[in-house]
Amino acid sequence: MSDNADTDADPYTLHDGDEGENGERGFVFWADEMADEIEVRAPEEPIVIKGGISPSGVPHIGNVNEIMRGYFVAEVLRERGHEVRQVFTADDKDRLRGLPRKLADLEGNIVDLGEVDAGALGRNLGKPYTAIPDPFGCCDSYGDHFSMLIGRSADLLGVPIEIESNTAMYEEGEFEESTRYFLENRERAHEVLSKYQDGVDESYIPFLAECENCGHLTDQITSVNLDSNTVEYECVDVEAGEQVIEGCGHEGTATLREGKLPWRFEWVAQWKALGVDFEPFGKDHAEGSWPSGQDIARNVFDFEPPVPMVYEWFTLDGEAFSSSAGNVMLVSEVLDLIEPEVLRYFFAKDPSRARDFNVERIDLLVDEFDRLERIYFGEVEADDREEQRAERIYPFCVEEVCEARIRLPYTFAAVLGMTDDSDLREEIARREGHIPEEAPDWAVEEALSRVESARNWARETENEYDYDLKRTELPDVEVDGNTKRALEELADFVEEGHTPEEIQGEIYEAAKRNDVPVGDFFATGYRLFFDQEQGPKLGQFLGKLDREFVLARLRRER
């Protein structure tokens, strides 16, 4: 649990909107603003929204930023009657520059490098990701494996994306025109790029050839022949961080399809080849690649770059995402804890604000989403801005707007997760008033499905709800005479019919009346019901269970 009081209070504060003349805040959905900017340009349809990533490690929820930011803008445009394509480029022609310490299989399990064929990666440093064998042995290449995971993440969130492989685009000649243009105008390309990148001298040629001998990508281009659309190259060493990837020294010829453009030029070539109208990207690109990209587009290629949108990164449990440090979480892992609509809501928040995805307090995010839903259906009081926010955002978060849907409070669902008895879960939920008597069966089933999610959360974080009710067998608990009398009195009190709060108070009083240390009496109760020395707030928990079972257990009958 965090020591930061503000973070514990609410790490998911929404900041959308602008100050009004009188200080009030009106809600403006950022995706509407982006759609407005796109429409001003009157683009041809289909409107193309793009994201992209290099397959360098585990595709975690931080990488999903570009997919989800693009999704909301795409949905707004579709709502306005536009035809939209959402594409996602796998920059899989990039070279592997180092060994990741963590990978993920197609089922979403994160594994250490030692658990797969690490040699498949180690022997192929410097080669394109799609030229490297899949270390899991299940896909055609390492690049394909990563792209498959990205596609599955989008599917889990109900986002229809078209994955475009850079490798395939090069092989099919979709970048050939752009590559040739850059080489024809390499003096101008050099002039523009030198403003943004050090070490770009007059001999710079914007192309990396794939060595026919060893498969490495080399930037040592010795000559260009545009009559044959080929380049001459020498396979030289490449610096990759603190290590050097050795080239084989081979001198050869490559066509413009047998290599790739440097990233800053390749990004522009993607815009042109795919007809991109809008692209969100992280602040790292905003400070680096974007200024050069728009300059190259306008002053080398003579076309207008896409409408941009910069998003802030978010952290995971207060720390930056890091495959090497193991601080990663896949979409599939998140959806073991919360519903897809709750995660979509997280990404619907203002992208210009940095925030933390706090797994320990994910209950606050769920509560916030549940309140949004209740506001949308007019079930709780809210101010004008909250109503505007709910009215605009909520329909984009759910697959279908349905007022009959039931949400169990998340921490209450975690309490129900202490028992495996599905009938008891439903009985308690009904008794507590969380499931209406006439609720349809599908709504009851969907509501109770949250129990497993909350239970997974309790076990993942080892929090106060991480206990298993021992319902089928009586734990072996020895009690002395005083404790036995205190348990009998507590059972009689429960049998009379009292609230959970009153039962909690009686636990203290029964212990005191019978000269049993209060801490020891609570420990006895925890051993009887959980076979552990500690547990949840005991009176609250007993008050929610079926009374016959509680009485029998307190009297140590079963």
UniProtKB/TrEMBL annotation:
The UniProt entry, under InterPro entries, shows: aa-tRNA-synth_I_codon-bd_sub2 (IPR020751), aa-tRNA-synth_I_CS (IPR001412), aa_tRNA-synth_I_cd-bd_sf (IPR008925), Lys-tRNA-ligase (IPR002904), Lys-tRNA-ligase_SC_fold (IPR042078), Rossmann-like_a/b/a_fold (IPR014729)
Q: Which intervals of this chain are the motif 'KMSKS' region? A: 320-324
Question: Which Gene Ontology terms of cellular component type are present?
Answer: cytoplasm
Give the top-rank taxon of the lineage listed in the UniProt record for this protein.
Archaea
Which GO terms fall under molecular function for this chain's record? ATP binding; lysine-tRNA ligase activity; tRNA binding
Q: Which residues cross the membrane?
A: none
**What is this protein identified as?**
Lysine--tRNA ligase
What's the source species for this entry?
Answer: Halalkalicoccus paucihalophilus
> Gene encoding this chain?
lysS
